[in-house]
Amino acid sequence: MKKDTFGGRVQERREELHYTQEALAEVLGLSYNFIVALEGDRKKPSIQTFTKLISVLDVSADWLLGIEPSEHRKEREERFKYIDEKIGDLSITAQDRILTVIETMINYETRMETRRLEN
C-alpha cells in the first residue's frame, strides 16, 4: 500500500477504522468498484465525495491530500492536544468555566494588541 498517495491514505485510514471496502462504499453512498479504484489511485473523488471522506474517515483535508503541516502548525496542534487531554476528563461545568476564562483572556489579549497597533 502506498501511503504517500491519496488512495493509499484512504486505504490506510479505512483499515485503521476497521471498515471493509464494501462498508466504506455503503456509508459514502458509492459503489464498491469506485472505492477499489479510489484506493488504487485510478479515480479521484468529487468535492462532495471528498468532504464525505473527511467526515467518515475523521481526518483533515490536509492529511488526506498529503499536505504536511508546518512546524508552527505542529506545535499548535500539540498544544491543543495537550489542553484537550487535560480538560477532557473534567465535568462539563468545569470545562465551561475553563472556556469562559480562555474567552476572557482572548478578549483581553485582542484589546491589548489593538492598543499596541494604534500607538
Automatic annotation (TrEMBL):
InterPro entries: Cro/C1-type_HTH, Lambda_DNA-bd_dom_sf, TransReg_Diox_bact_type. GO terms for molecular function: DNA binding; DNA-binding transcription factor activity. Gene3D superfamilies: lambda repressor-like DNA-binding domains (1.10.260.40). Residues 10-64 form the HTH cro/C1-type domain. The keyword Phosphoprotein does not apply. It comes from the Bacteria. SMART domains: HTH_XRE (SM00530). Pfam families: HTH_3. GO terms for cellular component: cytosol. Keywords: DNA-binding. This is XRE family transcriptional regulator. It comes from Hungatella hathewayi.
